[in-house]
Amino acid sequence: MSTNAAAPPLRWADRLRNLATVMVITIHVAAPIAAGRTDYDSSWWWWGNIYNSLSRASVPLFVMLSGFLLFSKDYPLIPFLKRRFTRVLIPALFWMLAYMIYASQVEGQPASLAAAVRSLVEGPVYYHLWFIYLILGLYMTYPILKPWVQRASEVEFRYFFLLCILGTWVLKAMLTFLHFGIGLYMELFTNNAGYFVLGYYLGAKPFDAPTATGIRAWSVGPKRLVWLAVALIVAGTSITAIGSWWGCKTYGNTYFPYFYDYLTPGVGGAAIGWFLLARLTFNGPALTEFEAKFAESSFGIYFIHVFMMIWWSAAGFWHSRGPAISCVPIIVGIISLSSFLAIMFLRALPGGDKVT
């Protein structure tokens, strides 16, 4: 097990990215079971709920990885914005157009050019593309947050995370269960900026001596941190799964999405656990060629996998084909592999690398 923060970071980061990519696909396969059925005591619903809960850490993990990789370097403002927006906007616009054409021809929405333009501005064009708007917004905050993040002390980081917990976990719980909020204006602390900064903090936090910025070393050794990471994953996933069952049963015997939200303690705790576990245990041997190619293709896989889901569903391969316990992982594997192969094919075409 590697315990050196200076060990090749792209091994664990790439492997974690691959895991998060598969998790996203798992959400989109399993979530319809959790959201579309009302037999909340059945094994079918429970397996959909478990797979959905286990995968909810994916979006926070992507945000945390972006924060770790970006804040670890010092990018000048204009080159950073130009490079990041170009690398995201060109493929995003290509796939948004593709999904808009599909939705217009098959689903009847958007029904006009004006509706298409409005959909593009308001987002998300198609349900999974909301993440593009999130990541672009975070990129816009990077030049502002970077000087503080790279110089902040341990106490300042803890203060920031405390405010993020108040503005997300606490506020969301108050609005959901108590039906009132907090009057303070806390724009910086009410969305995903906390995960963005947390990725750098957890990725840079040393195991022995403090960093130049004053981030303190862990007070426990790597082996105990591994057990802590596993405990966070188990506890966070259990809170999400059991809480969702409890909410569905308690609030009108209907779908209750609160515990699946990315800005809740269960999902956040599991994401922290996965991030730590990856940093501590995913460095291992060098990446295989498949791992490296899959990581390089993860952005394209994210874009294309919904088309693959639609195609395989039309071909009869969907979670309703058999018991959810076996169907969900099989279908996730099929969609993941076929999406990867489709992106590899597109990348072999002229200009394909620009949109994937």
Strand content: under 5%
Helix content: over 70%
How confident overall, as mean pLDDT? 92
Kindly give the count of domains.
1
The main sheet comes to: none
The count of strands amounts to 0
Topology as a string of helices (H) and strands (E): HHHHHHHHHHHHH
Radius of gyration over C-alpha positions, nearest whole angstrom:
21 Å
Structural class: mainly alpha
What is the count of DSSP helices, taking H or I runs of 4+ residues? 13
Shape: globular
Unreliably modeled segments: 1-7
The N- and C-terminal alpha carbons lie at a distance of 34 Å
Overview of this protein structure:
This protein is 71% helix and 0% strand. It has 356 residues and is mainly alpha-helical. It has one domain (9-180, 187-350). It contains 13 helices and no strands.
Protein topology:
Blueprint: H1 9-36, H2 43-55, H3 58-71, H4 77-107, H5 113-122, H6 130-151, H7 154-178, H8 193-204, H9 222-250, H10 265-281, H11 289-296, H12 298-314, H13 324-348
Helix pairs in contact: 1-2, 1-3, 1-10, 1-11, 1-12, 1-13, 2-9, 3-6, 3-8, 3-10, 4-6, 4-12, 6-8, 7-8, 8-10, 9-10, 12-13
